[in-house]
Amino acid sequence: MQADGSIAAVVDGNFVNLGHLSPAAMERARGLTDGLPLASFAGNSAIAREVDALARRLARHRLLEYRLFHPHDQHDLVVIEPQAAEYWPRRARLRESDTVVLSRFAYLRRRGNEMVLESPRAGALFRIGDPAIAATLAALSRPLKISQLRRDAAAFNLDLLELLLDSQILLKLDAKSGDGLRVNEGDGNLVLWDFHDLVFHTRSTEGRQANPVGSTFAYAGVVSPLPAVRPPWPGRKIDLRKFATSDPLSPFAALLRERHSIRDFDDQHPITLAELAQFLDSAARVLSEWKSSANSESGPEITYSTRPYPSAGSAYELELYLAVSNCEGLARGLYHYDAGGHALAEIAVSAQQLQAISAAAVFAMDASGPPQVLITIAARFGRISWKYSSIAYALILKDVGSLLQTLYLTATDMGLGGCAVGTGNIDLFAQMTGLDFHVESPVGQFALGRGSNVNSTDQA
């Protein structure tokens, strides 16, 4: 808090500007260090409105935690840690006659010396401070009425249950919900998801978790790095070098060796729309379509397609979304590639959203500027999970690897630059497209453009 009324938060050496406060509001805001009751800035006074605006800005950056504590001894019952930006605790009202059960995506685990309750569907995790609450949560593995919980639970707290219901960690069942074992949880698309797949999707991307992401070198001081090349096995060795010939490499072998990651692009000579069309035609266009029945002649008929890259079970669940920053002949914006019609369909997004998705790629690649075209690879998850059990998400990631290599080789063959991007924000994509993160969501990204001479030989 500065003398001129400006406020900034410092997180790992980075400054987040939070605006200005009046002296009176700044004095009250100092209470955030130890905790302020939500009611203290929920009023209509000028001070309350200022502190509320500050709290909302902090929440937008996931810089607030929320305590639910015992009124007698101030002991923390639960501390809520936001995982998604702009999370704010809300209570979904429960009646005594309501029946609730834990979501099948909810899980309780040890983190250090703490127990935390999480769900990939929730915008926050709940740090459990009272063992009796953990026992109550375990009891909710089966449906129970609120009245029964109030009577029998080891620790009953209606506020907590309503917070968990709002976070979709708890479900409220009705007569049509059955036993609650695999209900659609309010969205039929969730029936197709196995627990481990949805957890992995949200915990290996940005947007719905607050953990560090990327090259943090978390174990640099704990474990020595493995060598770049594995030490050879001690058994009998057959030297393959004697089979090498002096013949020139085939065009394909030469293309494989020429491929490398290009992170910086020549914005004075951007990729053209004609080149982009050729690139998509070569790497991702639907070549043919066909039909087959599932399992037996009596099974439902399934449509399939053939494309230039391989896909598990010919599912071709991957879709390409292009965030265009600099392409001659094509306006800035977000486009979906219609692989069947070989066309681009524009999606209305804000300039701020377009800048945010490009800026995230710049940071992930450690590049000097935005990619001319950022291709987000999204998966229609149901296309794979409708058929495959246990391995659905693993198959999707293998398909992503096949497609990324195809994009790399196509760019190299055309004299363009490309670079795979290791992270992606699934919540930002959901905001831009209006698609739920569990229906169609990013699983990979690829930066494309005309490469500059800067860092053009970086290998990856």
Notes on the structure:
This protein is an alpha+beta fold and 460 residues long. 27% of the residues lie in helices and 22% in strands. The protein has helices at 23-29, 46-60, 131-139, 146-152, 158-166, 195-203, 251-258, 273-283, 351-365, 381-385, 392-413, 426-433, and strands at 6-11, 14-20, 66-69, 76-82, 99-102, 107-111, 114-118, 124-128, 144-145, 170-173, 288-293, 301-306, 318-324, 333-338, 343-347, 373-380, 417-421, 440-449. It has a six-stranded antiparallel beta sheet, with helices on both faces. A five-stranded antiparallel beta sheet has the order 3-4-8-7-6. Helix 1 (23-29) crosses helix 2. The chain is globular and about 85 Å long.
How would you sum up the major sheet?
Answer: 6 strands, antiparallel
If you average the pLDDT, what whole number results? 92
Instruction: Please identify the structural class as seen in this structure.
Output: alpha+beta
Low-pLDDT segments: none
Helix-residue proportion: 25-40%
Distance between the termini: 44 Å
The ordered string of helix (H) and strand (E) elements is: EEHHEEEEEEHEHHEHHHEEEEEHEHHEHE
Strand tally: 18
Strand order of the largest sheet: 15-14-13-16-18-17
Helical segment tally? 12
Radius of gyration: 26 Å
Strand percentage lies at: 15-25%
What general outline do the C-alpha atoms trace? globular
